[in-house]
Amino acid sequence: MRRNLLIIIVLVLSIIYNPVNAQLKYTINESWHFTKDSTIVNINQFLAQKNRGELVNIPHTWNDKDVVDENKGFYRGAGWYTKKVRIPSSYKNKQVFLFFEGVSTAAEVYINKKLAKTHIGGFTRFVVPVSKFIAFDEGKEFTSFDIIVKADNSYHEDWPALQADFTFFGGMYRDVNIVVTEAIHFNIEDYAANGVFITTPSVTEQKGEVHVKVKIKNDASSTKKIKLITKIYDPNQKLVQEKSNSLKLKSNISNEFNLKMKPVLNPKLWSPDTPDLYKVVCEIFDETSNKKIDESVNSLGFRWFKFDVDKGFFLNGKHLKLIGTNRHQDFKDIGNAVPDHIHVEDVMRMKAMGSNFLRIAHYPQDPIILEMCDKLGIITSVETPIVDTVTESEAFTKNCLSAQLEMIRQNYNHPSLVIWAYMNEVILHPKYKNDKVRYKAYTDYIVQLAQKIENLTRKEDPYRYTMIPNHNSLERYQSAGLTEIPMIVGWNIYNGWYGGSYELLPSKIEAIYNAIKKPMIITEYGAGVDPRLHTLTPTRFDFTQEYGVEYHKYYLEYFKKKDFIAGVNAWNYADFSSEGRVDAVQSINNKGLIGIDRTPKDVFYYYQASLLKKPFISLATKTWGQRSNLEDKIDSGISTMPVQVFSNQPEVELILNGKSLGTKKVEGAIAVFNVPFVNGSNQLIAKASKDIYLEDFSEIRVNVLPISLKNFPVNGLSINVGDQRFFYDNKIDQAWMFDKVYTKGSWGHIEGEPYVRPNKNKQQPYGTKQTIKGTANDPLYQTQLVGIKQYRFDVPAGVYDIKLHFAELEGSKAKHLPYDLSEKTTEKIKTANRTFSVDINDHKIINTLDLLGQYGEYQAVKIKSEIVVKEGEPLIINFKKIVGEPVLNAIEVYKKL
Ligand code: GCB
Ligand code: CA
């Protein structure tokens, strides 16, 4: 009796506690030893030395600080990670794998010092079977094994991307996992996919067909019988269908089965507004013991879509304009080694911006991105990194093809994903431009490569579209024959940024549309914005917030009007690292709608106002905490400046310090008010019309700079000389005003012209865009007055600190940067020959200053001096030329007493 009870208890327990022997997957990210040394390039050299290096955690990159520290240099080479891992000895009967989500750019994985895997490609996942390298210690509970990973981000002519406008961070920068399966398991060794491939060959409102392809590996030594149960759950987790198949698995191979499910009736359709996800659960059971052996859960979305040459994109039969951004995967100070949550919040923020489209450029990203897009309803395109140029080699071709295959298999089951792309601006820097025959062979190779990738893609996935994004050179891509190949042609267009006016956009795009009768996506457009720069006179390439808004507004309004433009992706969602680039901020591409730390710029709010359906209002003041500007009239104490209000409401009212400035119509998501700011704190409230409660508040601190300095500003004068842009140093809350010409009784410069690069680089309206050493405030130093004679302040008597800021802007040749969309120019910039001295009133402050000789080119030099000014005497800074022309980049004056 008691025995029977025991048996019953055991039976009941075993039913309740039915241990799921299915796949086990967990990260082993912590406590790896890491070292790098350019002389250690192979495993024997590594093993020969004792130093295993410092302890690091994954995600990790060794380049996180390289581009921040200007003296460090950028390390491209091998890095070595080692770790001892302990697993239960009982895993002897199972299959143990390592699963790498991303190692840049190539990896060699050694288990117990034996090479277990090499992988090329820094953006796709790979799996390493490790069981066969481990001697299980059955006498002990645990068995240990050693992992050595060589990661390598060297330049290699066969590893795409060869060059591109983003930083090639090296390292093990995504999760590393251990995966444990039974001998029979969904085949994760098939390009690190999960072994389940779901398609919906036909979907209507009435029914959705579902096909499921499974790949199951049988690592046992004989044929095995299993039961495969496939279940479909609806978005409310209700089981809507279950199918059971008895299958025979041949030993040692990947067994493939195609299952046709019953159509799902009246499916809830997936769309950006209704991102309803079904779920497909595939379970493998041992046919005799009925034990669950493996399980794979995948999302399923019912939607159908089409791209039309003239009418654009249709989802579930309805027209949908695709509008969104591109995205790179890095973040401030940590490079590409970002925690999951950064990815999660990024997609949340895209949704909050009103995006319904994302181009995952220029490479596949963390798995979480597509998961989030599925859940939030953001349609996506993803691509492999064949950027700017190619190598005509078999190995290069092979690496491109395997990257494409990995991308497709690994990301197959995402309803948000509708486009497989590859290549980006691949004829941007064509080799052999001066040799017609050789050039033709080169572009022929590109076209053949594209055709191979295209064929592979269509074979792997007949239900999605393919795309190649090109740059703004229709002729080049068309004559090469490249536009023939993909189903959609993407165009990256920067009219009004790198060159020309944005008003040339329509003619440019319409010419493309007429020439290439294929669905079209504007895969990139954008303008650099350094959030610290502002202006009253927006100009192309000035990096100001105001020009950024003006540029995007023009583009977006045009895009919205044209149906033949199926979709657009602003470049870029966020600022991103680009090691070789020099914009307003060193090694950062500033075209983000938000910063690299994800602080929104004005243009981000502009997009929200333009795209969001729910009521929205925002003042364009969020990143300009403090500003300095000249008073309107002498002694008025008021400085009037325009303030933009972004809203999707018809009218908005603006209230300044409790007083209404009236109501304005919102046009194109913007209303502009001229705001008479007072000195000190100003409180602004922007309000939507009466029918709805919607407002935004902002406190703006303004230094209304007096024309006459009788009352010297308490926090001093900070002047960006040789410039028409305000600069706000957000790190230390310092507001710089732009320069002005001296007038009697006031202050300003006497003589001198703003620096213009000798060969007039057509890209730069302000000074230079070379990086300035010794400062983070590059824009202040990138502009200067040349030939300045005096800077004069008609000040009251007192004790003053005067700080002069210099940088030599002439020195070396400007190099041509890889991402530069303009044609190659060989600009010769003469070497500076300049010496001058500086007197302040009667005092010789600087004797024979030779910036180039004493400090070198592009080096910020700050010289501070204290001066006592007597009653009735002005403060005059005299620049005395010895050789060449004197210069001044910025000036600060502070009254001590
Ligand atoms: C492009 C490239 C992208 C660059 C961008 C730019 O056309 O595709 O990689 O970052 O232009 O900012 O210049
Ligand atoms: Ca300046």
Automatic annotation (TrEMBL):
Keyword check for Membrane = no
User: What's the protein here called?
Assistant: Beta-galactosidase
Q: Which GO terms describe its molecular function?
A: hydrolase activity, hydrolyzing O-glycosyl compounds
Q: Which organism is it from?
A: Wenyingzhuangia fucanilytica
Per the UniProt entry, the signal peptide is none
InterPro entries, A to Z: Beta-gal/glucu_dom_sf (IPR036156), DUF4982 (IPR032311), Galactose-bd-like_sf (IPR008979), GH (IPR017853), GH2_Domain-Containing (IPR051913), Glyco_hydro_2 (IPR006101), Glyco_hydro_2_cat (IPR006103), Glyco_hydro_2_N (IPR006104)
Family annotation (PANTHER family) = BETA-GALACTOSIDASE (PTHR42732), BETA-MANNOSIDASE (PTHR42732:SF1)
Please state every residue range assigned to the domain named Glycosyl hydrolases family 2 sugar binding: 28-179
Q: Which UniProt keywords apply?
A: Glycosidase, Hydrolase
Q: Could you tell me which residue ranges the Malectin domain spans?
A: 718-873
Alphabetical list of SUPFAM superfamilies matching this protein: (Trans)glycosidases (SSF51445), beta-Galactosidase/glucuronidase domain (SSF49303), Galactose-binding domain-like (SSF49785)
**Alphabetical list of Pfam families matching this protein:** DUF4982, Glyco_hydro_2, Glyco_hydro_2_C, Glyco_hydro_2_N, Malectin
Q: Which residues form the Glycoside hydrolase family 2 catalytic domain?
A: 310-608
Task: Please give the family membership noted in the entry.
Answer: Belongs to the glycosyl hydrolase 2 family.
